[in-house]
Write a structure and sequence with these properties.
DNA Binding (I), subunit A; alpha+beta; five-stranded mixed β-sheet; 6 helices; two-stranded antiparallel sheet; elongated
C-alpha cells in the first residue's frame, strides 16, 4: 500500500485547470489537508472541486484507489486543483539520452529512421577524442549501428549527413512533459 501512496498518479492543475505537474496521492493528501489544493471529484455528473474535509466523506468507489485509515477508507484523488497558483511553469529538457530522444523525436539524425527503445544512443557529432563537447549543440540521437560505424570520425568523414543541426531545445510549458504512463482515464481531458 505504501507503494501506491508514493506512485505519481495524481495530476496537478493550476487554478485555471491547466495541467502543470504530477504528484503522489500522499503529496496530494498533504496539499488538500493544508488547503492549497482541492480534490477533483470526477464522475458521470461532472467535475466538482472538493475541499479536504468533504473529500474525507466521499465514498470509495469500485474504480477508485482507496487508502485505508483508522477512520475507514479514503478515496485517492486522480486530479487536484491548486487553490491559488495560476501560472504554467516553463521547463527545459534535461541533457540525457531521454532528453535527446525527446528533442530529436525518437529519430536517428543520420538515417531518419524512427528508433525503438534501446536502438539509439548519444552520438557526438565532433567526437570527444577530437575535442567535441558533451552538449546539446554537439550531440544527436543515432542508431547504435550507425554510431558504431561512424566511430571517432566526423559525419563528413564517415559519409553521413545530419538531418538537422543539433541545438539547445527551447523551454516548453510543463504540460508538455507530463505523460500518462499509468493510463489514468481522468487525465485525458486535461492533457489533450
Amino acid at each position: 500500500m505504501t507503494e501506491a501512496l508514493n506512485r505519481p498518479t495524481v495530476l496537478v492543475l493550476n487554478r485555471h485547470w491547466q495541467a502543470i505537474d504530477v504528484k503522489s496521492p500522499a503529496e496530494a493528501f498533504s496539499m488538500m489537508a493544508t488547503g492549497s489544493a482541492l480534490g477533483l471529484d470526477i464522475g458521470e455528473e461532472g467535475m466538482n472541486p472538493i475541499p479536504w474535509m468533504d473529500w474525507l466523506k466521499l465514498p470509495v468507489r469500485e474504480q477508485d484507489a482507496g487508502v485505508g485509515t483508522v477512520r475507514g477508507g479514503v478515496r485517492a484523488p486522480t486530479v487536484i486543483v491548486l487553490a491559488r497558483y495560476a501560472r504554467v511553469p516553463m521547463r527545459r529538457l534535461s541533457f540525457s539520452l531521454r532528453g535527446l530522444w525527446e528533442r530529436d523525436g525518437g529519430m536517428c539524425q543520420y538515417t531518419g529512421r524512427r528508433l525503438a527503445p534501446g536502438e539509439g544512443n548519444i552520438d557526438h557529432v565532433v567526437p570527444r577524442s577530437r575535442g567535441g563537447r558533451t552538449s546539446w549543440d554537439n550531440c544527436v540521437l543515432a542508431d547504435k549501428r550507425v554510431n558504431h560505424r561512424k566511430g571517432n570520425r566526423t559525419p563528413d568523414e564517415a559519409g553521413l549527413r545530419l538531418l538537422k543541426s543539433p541545438n539547445t531545445p527551447r523551454e516548453l510549458p510543463a504540460t508538455a512533459f507530463i505523460r500518462n504512463t499509468h493510463g489514468i482515464r481522468d487525465w485525458e481531458m486535461f492533457l489533450g
